[in-house]
Amino acid sequence: DRGIWPWDQACYALASVDLWWTLLHDPASYFSYISEAVLRCRAPGISVIGQFFVPLGQTFGSIERFLLLSIFIQSYLCLFLLGATIQRLETRSRLCPYLAILILAATPLFADMSRTFLVEQLQLLSVIYVYWVLVGFEDRGASASFSHLLIAVSLGLAAKISSPLYCLVPACFVLYKLIRRPLIDLLPGKLRERILALVAAAFLLPVAFWYVHNLEYVLFAARDLSVGTMAGYYGSAEPIPQKLIHWIQDLARFSLVPAMYYLLPLLVVIPLYLKFKEKSLRSGIMIAAVLQSLVVLLVLSLSVPEDVRYVYGILPSLIVVYTVLVSTIRNQIYLVSALAVFLIQFIAVSLSSFGNLQNGLPLLTRYINHETKILSLPGAKVDELNRLVRLAAASYREGYRIVLGVNYPWLNPNTLGFYAARAKLDGLNWFSIESWKVDMQESELPAWFSTRKKVLFITLSPRAMDEEKSVPFANRLNKSALEYVEVRGKKIPFESDSGLLIYKIP
Description:
The chain is mainly alpha-helical.
């Protein structure tokens, strides 16, 4: 993928590059940069991990490729840890771990998240990690389990501020088991337990410090993105039953056998029945997984946004329930049939994700077409962005403010900032980028421009704006700003097939 990374991907990539640059050139301010300058309302975990892949990208010619390598490693760990979790669950067949792995790998959103520089894969890993801790608690012991739980929760919080929601119930089950043990059992005794406790502290303390330091921003972001102004751009407030149906339908699109999601009420009854019938580990884990799924669905139904990525963290819980239910059926034909169905889905998803199954087999692709629409854009505009960065850097040296008058997937402050940060690694002067608020009114434009002298204004032609369907609510403001600038600015020659327009305003 040699395309341009849009909004959130570029934001996290920009932070990764800036962190690596700061570590090399200004190590004294590195930790303050993480706590204050990077993503104050977004957990920085993916960027902190990604920074160590930046030098590999420099060496081999593609920073994006090696940032995605970090995501691929997280994807592999998700599959490996999920298989290990199911293997410990007293299932009656050796094939059950492979079924669980296949279900997750065959999910269209897993394919998307495995090649997209976003936080969901690290969040998913933390959720599966908590289940792994719960399943192996008795074998591992209280001290080691406590340390592993701290690492898992720290990873989740480092990935995304909403992560505790997706592992709340299994984490509470682990805490309940810990509370029932004598306090002496929680203290690390063996050398391995002491090392693990130190690792847990190394994960927990920086994450806790970041949250305490940025608590005001985190709370504001959590509210704004769930029921506030920004949430309105990603969904609408509706009655809880209607929202619940929406989320279950989204889950159903992940599978060729959507009944496994539509039958959620039945999945509540069966584990309860098994719990009373047999006092086993797997029945308790199933109860935890079902409760966890219902908690997430209820919370999502109370919030405004409707991004399909929000149900991604439920998948481990549903896979645990589904896999164990299949294993309780004594006839192996059901397990083999499930393996066959998800193997077909995995092949279809793999072909579809590389563009080889877009028009064929409509019965298969009905439920596996990608729903995220967040993959990066074609690479035809990469050259234009690179030339734009060089022009902006030269203008910034001359004292010009760089103002971006549009906010589209391929041309926005995050994407342009990421390209500028990459160029800074190669010795090009860095420049800061300004843009206006999404909710700014047309009447505010004159006052906004009057406070800014010597502006390099970057925008798109009206025709190019009309072709951009991703942010229709912003086009009116963008066109008004362009009309304002055309009268007061001087157009700079810039060859562009994408409608790029550049003006210098004295």
